[in-house]
Design brief:
alpha+beta, eight-stranded mixed barrel, single chain, about 40% strand, about 20% helix
């Protein structure tokens, strides 16, 4: 059976920026093992597989694989998959709803002059705060000193809106740039609460970078610890945490968050967090996408 795929760069408006994603459009009949093998073959941070929905009221079932394992939810795979499906439709939809292991994921299509240019997801879960780490533990994961970790707003903390990440603030743009993943630090810290990745950000952003925060994320990849150029699920979780800590009790808080700059794949993630009576009720992250490649491969299903 011929199976079509399209690749996109997500959270960017230019080719070779953002986070690459492969979307397999004709995934019916593929087994879990086959999906994992295909994701490993693409060797992107994630590959998605589009299947018919279990409930006809929804648009698709979407399964998400890294090169190592299946994920219950992820950010740039949802944004990129929704963008691809919108561009393939005769009449682009305003929104899509995906069935995923973490729950239902609504995605709004971002358009200009009737043409899809990106998407914005709503996280499938409300903010969950889990294990707190010391500044020393966080610093050891990213090869920084204790003085490089800020704890005035929050300690390093595992948070989730569908997928858990250790979120830490660093003191300066220079510290963000100097960070390197440390295998010993990772081994001491993870796994914890189902988390094996650290997302860290700084508020010390020069005006020329045109965003509110700059961030980076380290995680285990196919050949050891690696960096992700744009991490929607972590960004949404961090934005939800910052929204929770904000003094506003009601309203919508927005942040423009840069990522991938220090690895040569600049990304821009746009977040919204809604609060009611002092509680974060929803977290959203979106951005632009650029289609890169398309093709097909022949593979009979085993599922």
């Amino acid at each position: 059976m011929q199976r079509r795929y399209i690749t996109v760069d997500v959270f960017t408006d230019r080719a070779f920026g953002g986070n690459p994603l492969a979307v397999v459009l004709d995934a019916g009949g593929l087994s879990t093992g086959q999906m994992q093998a295909i994701a490993t073959e693409f060797n992107y941070s994630e590959t998605t597989f589009v299947l018919p929905p279990r409930d006809g009221a929804h648009d698709a079932q979407v399964r998400i694989f890294t090169v190592r394992a299946e994920l219950p939810f992820a950010g740039h795979p949802n944004v990129g998959t929704a963008f691809v499906l919108a561009t393939q439709a005769a009449k682009p939809p305003a929104r899509l709803k995906f069935e995923e292991k973490a729950g239902l994921v609504p995605v709004e299509i971002l358009s200009e002059q009737g043409r899809p240019i990106g998407a914005e997801l709503t996280a499938p879960q409300r903010l969950i705060r889990m294990t707190q780490f010391s500044a020393e533990q966080a610093a050891s994961c990213i090869s920084l000193s204790l003085a490089d970790i800020k704890i005035d707003r929050h300690p390093p903390l595992i948070v989730s809106v569908g997928l858990p990440f250790l979120v830490a603030e660093v003191a300066s743009r220079d510290a963000l740039r100097r960070a390197r993943p440390d295998a010993t630090g990772f081994a001491c810290a993870f796994p914890c609460d189902g988390c094996d990745a650290v997302y860290f950000y700084t508020r010390d952003v020069p005006a020329a970078e045109s965003c509110d925060l700059q961030a980076r994320m380290f995680h285990p990849g196919s050949s050891g610890l690696s960096e992700d150029p744009a991490t929607g699920s972590a960004t949404a979780a961090a934005a939800a945490l910052l929204g929770h800590l904000a003094s506003e009790r009601d309203g919508e808080l927005k942040l423009r968050i840069g990522q991938g700059v220090d690895m040569g794949r600049p990304s821009l993630l746009l977040t919204r967090v809604r609060k009611e009576n002092g509680v974060v009720v929803s977290a959203h992250v979106g951005g632009a996408c650029v289609q890169m490649m398309e093709g097909s491969f022949r593979l009979a299903g085993e599922g």
